[in-house]
Amino acid sequence: MKIEYVRSYSTYLKREMEYKVYGHDGFSILSFPTQNGRFYDYEDRGLIAMFSDWIEQGRLRFICVDSLDLESWSATGDPKSRLMVQENYFHYIVDELIPHFKTTMPQSFLYAFGCSMGAYHAMTVFARRPDLLDGVFCLSGIYHSGFFIKDYADDLSFLNSPLDSFCHLRCDHPYLALYRTKRILVCVGTGAYEGECLWDTQRLEEAFLKLGIQASVYYWSEGYSHDWPAWFEQIFYYLPHLLEEVEKGLRRT
């Protein structure tokens, strides 16, 4: 398996950032770690090994990025400063990393993916820059910024709150037609510690329905809690279907 480790300077974050790419070709998945996680977590947890055959065959490629949650959503202190970290992180992803990947992997489908906080980041990138992605795959996400900063609100808190963005999207917004061409898959369990994620997922589904955006939204039983065993089972179930769609050149319309 081809594995590329990259450490490069980000002009938005004014520091060196790390990521890993697993695979040489195929359906590319921009993978965000769980809360406070690192770029190597999916490898350490066994996700890369789970799909190693497809990766080695050039059918699948994981791009695993780092997080700055400890300085933004998980931090304490001034909400505006924390939001600025998140905003700069967003621009690092969409203005530095994704353009680089688009240049080096021009023929690849690109989906954003994540579990828990990773799902938040994936959906945020999709909500704000659907032109950069072919789809989004989210598990057990919280999708509104108010969960982390409570009553504080400004332009950045709205921009970085995908649930609010979809709930308040105008019917004449230029992105609406674009959202309708993309593949959206969202899943959440109904077991332990999924309460807030379940609420957000339900509200997100309602917003999609109201806007006429087709999305596959799934609710798993109470046996599926907010934890890795549930996510791995969900990934193992849904990812082969997404890969099959991509390989057939399908888009959800």
Automatic annotation (TrEMBL):
This is Esterase family protein. InterPro entries: AB_hydrolase_fold (IPR029058), Esterase-like (IPR000801), Mycobacterial_A85_antigen (IPR050583). Transmembrane segments: none annotated. PANTHER family: ENTEROCHELIN ESTERASE-RELATED (PTHR48098), IRON(III) ENTEROBACTIN ESTERASE (PTHR48098:SF3). Gene3D superfamilies: alpha/beta hydrolase.
